[in-house]
Amino acid sequence: MADPASRKMASLAYRALEAKKAENITVIDIADVSVVADYFIIASGRNHVQVQTMADSVNETLGKAGYVPKDTEGYSTAHWILLDYGDLVVHVFDEENRLFYDLERIWRDGKSATIEDLESEA
Question: 3-45 pLDDT, tens per residue?
């Protein structure tokens, strides 16, 4: 099970994505199946501008809370932006690439989590 700091970080990222009209936000708790992170959050945007705006919103929100990304990849092309915060990895896709990479299928051994799960446990 993920620790409270990871849940808080995931909750903040979820709300930041939601504020920028992210589509199909999915949270996967991978704490029991991987050492990569505690949570993956996967979201889609309709175009490259929205995808970048969503990533900016996550970075700004988490930055204000004192979290600094360890790595960011894919920002310039905005087909798939990966924001690595250690215990949280946020994947922001355009619609086409989200369907192609299908991370939900790859990480199906993880547990699906809702924003209510994140906030009730935090």
Answer: 889 999 999 999 999 999 999 999 999 999 998 999 999 999 9
> Among positive and negative, which fits the CA dihedral 40, 41, 45, 49?
negative
Domain that holds residue 89: 4-121
Pairing of β 88-94 and β 39-45: parallel
- What CATH number did the domain enclosing 16 receive? 3.30.460.10
Number of domains in the chain: 1
Distance, in Å, from the CA atom of 103 to the CA atom of 92, rounded to the nearest integer, reads 11
Q: What is the pTM of this model?
A: 0.95
List, in order, residues 6 or more apart from 103 with CB less than 8 Å away: 28, 40, 42, 91
Question: Contact, 10 vs 39, CB < 8 A?
Answer: yes
Token pair 């704490």: residue:
31
How far, in Å, CA of 86 to CA of 88, rounded?
A: 5
CA atoms of 103 and 89, how far apart (whole Å):
12
